Amino acid sequence: MEAFVFYLLATLILGLGIMVITARSAVHSVLFLVLNFLLVAILYVTLSAQFVAVIQVLVYAGGIVVLYLFVVMLVSLKKAPELRSDSRRVARTGLLLAGAVLAELIAIVWYTSANGSAPPAQAASDFPPRLAGDAMLNTERLGWVLYTEYLIPFEVASMLLLVAMIGAIVLAKKNL
Amino acid sequence: MLDTFVIPLLQIAVLVNALLVTVTFLVLMERKVMGWAQARLGPMRVGPYGILQAIVDPIKLILKEDITPANADRFVFTLAPIMSLVPALVVFSVIPFGPEQPYYIADINVGLLFIISVTSIGVYGIILGGWSSNSKYPLLASLRASAQLISYEIAVVMTLVSVVLTAGTLNMIGIVEAQREAGLWFAFVQPVACVLVFIGGLAETNRLPFDLPEAETELTGGFHTEYSGMRFSLFFLAEYANIIVISAIVALMFFGGWMRPFPNVEALAFLDLIPGWVWFCGKIFFFLYLFVWIRATFPRYRYDQLMAIGWKVLIPIAIGNLVLTGIAKVVL
Amino acid sequence: MMTDATEAPRRIGQAFDTDELVLNMGPQHPSTHGVLRVVLRLDGERVVDADCVIGYIHRGVEKLCENRDWTQIVLLTDRMDYVAAATSNLGYVEAVEKLMQVEVPRRARYIRTILAELQRIASHCLWLGTHAMDIGAMTVLLYSFREREHVLDLFEEYCGARLTYNSMRIGGLPLDIPTGWDKRVSAFCDVMETKLDEYEELLTNNRIWVGRTRDIGVISGEEATALGLCGPPLRGSGVSRDVRKDEPNAAYDEFEFDIPLGTRGDTYDRYLIRLEEFKQSIRIIRQAVEGLPEGPVMGKVPRLIKPPAGETYHAVESPKGEIGFFVVSDGRSTNPYRFRVRPPSFCNLQALSRLCKGHLVADVVALIGTIDIVLGEVDR
Hints:
Chain A is an all-alpha fold. Chain A has seven helices and no strands. Chain B has one domain (72-331). At the B-C interface, helix 6, helix 10, helix 12 and helix 13 of B face strand 1, helix 4, helix 5, helix 7 and helix 14 of C.
């Protein structure tokens, strides 16, 4: 049952991914992207990662893609970008990138199958006693891990976002 | 089988029907209350005191011609109203009307986040509706809407986080139970948060004084200018369903949901004779009334003022409230 | 959408390659107060340029008047500013009286003053309601229309009509007031005074209202004069010009009243001024009702009105501003040789595109409201 749901979702996700890049209208392709994200969220639910699923919907579907849509709606799409550049060069670059991603995926599969799945970052016994027993508390556990084990990456990521935000403001507002 | 399919389906059927009927009567209530506030009677023709207006209005909307403007993106144009209504209805699956089974459909441990994330999907309906109409006023409105909803969502979510800190859980039932343990409604523990969520709710449901995406006197109806008939009424349903959602969230998180006032005071135990879900619905209706009252009282903000309030007032207050709550949580 | 020259989008061409959006506001739009069309060029929501297109209800009133005899014209003046018919009547009949040098009985002049001031209250009620409605405060509209109904009832009692009164004649008035009418007028004044507080409570200190009107559409006194503004928009900029004081007509010289002036020349000032004008109108009406002299209401005029050859210009203060009538008689026919109106709405409308520039779309709506136009008078 679980495997069936997984393969069904995976097929749909890949199919929608293809729809995203083949859709004629940019707005349609953004819509497929939203649907894609929602299905990925369902995938997380089947893995009992409810928190991640909900955050996936909130951040990606509810936030980021809205901004994509915002941009796509405003940009005049009468001149398709292909018409302005050499299509063969674009195809070559695309193939190169796709090859790189494929190589990366193969490397990951090869690595994990050789070493077994990565060990959990933290054994359950490392959690404070309140969080140790109940597996339903995965939001709390996630919070715990983020603020102990992964504190520095977490802060670095937030710093990066701050820089991006300030950069965007400086770019958009010429005279502050 | 019975527990996994039949009962939830029955619950959903009851809830959706109750919701849609409530929405039609909410429209009537709005017209009536507005009427009384404005020294007039409101609808009086259909049925005694215009009560049947609630039934006639939907029929009228269904029978109206459903127009698609020339050069509109037909697919998106049809999709938009559905995309705005569905999230509004889905949210109710995790809103508990009482602490035990028949009163809620699903009890998930990230209930509050679920509500926030699903409502954030609702903005697509407005944006796409405005864009796909291929008309300038709706386009302007949908731009306003997307900026407004995203900005105010930040403030509302930040504020809700401070409530989550107070309650120690994301589960909706858990939040209400935490209020029982505290012996106080969170409206008294987190008064700032309560006001912020309500104001943010006004903005997220496009109600006055934040109704810029539909501002009929500026944008001639805003994102749904080009909609008519059933598709328009879906937008309409979604807006009012969202108002009920916001009222329900405020009632649950700050006013003790299904609990009577002062749940730990024994002397008031006779109030428990009124069932919990009646208390809850009563609280919801109080906030619905508040929505209408505000609409009858205030003028509309301008777009830049709206954004200034969102970013320069609400978000800093929300962050400050969050920090204070965190400090209080650690110290106490 | 039409594609005339005013409509082609123009490149702004800054760091980003952006276009202006050309937005047609009107002629079918809930806030243009009739069939006004404003072509807005927008950079985002900011107005770069605004062009007024008028003439959608042009009926050629001035030309029509040249083919009617002098008494019939009163009826046509009703139909210019149809929410302030009595002041148009007053301006026209006084212009002809000036041309013919007719003496109007004092009682008639008093009643004319009462009618004109009642009309000002009715017109300002309409302005307040629609202006507030445009900014989103819906309730004020219903409240101010409730009071406007009172005024219309008074007019109905006096002349039988509620909108286009045809309430004056050259040389006086067609009718004396009904018994008890003056009592009801002063009773209305008492009611109106309490209701004014209601409006002020809803708006004057409302943060949103102040935010929406303060510093919106600021215009200096010199610029307002140069643009030929009149009425509250001119006085809002601090220029003391009111025909009732400067060139008293009817019986205004016999009453005490103040001319409220603004300091900043913004929308909020114009709002305050009109609210103060309500109070001043009530003050004038009270004095007129108390001092209402006895006597006839019709002066000595010939049966067939045929003014001597000559021309004259006469202005009165309508609720919108200075409404002037220029009439030329050739002395032979019973029609005016030339008839021309200086309509306050039209002159004030000129300021719109100047006022709008740099503001947001939402402000355009507030600015159309603040200059208080009636398209029937703009287009004639």
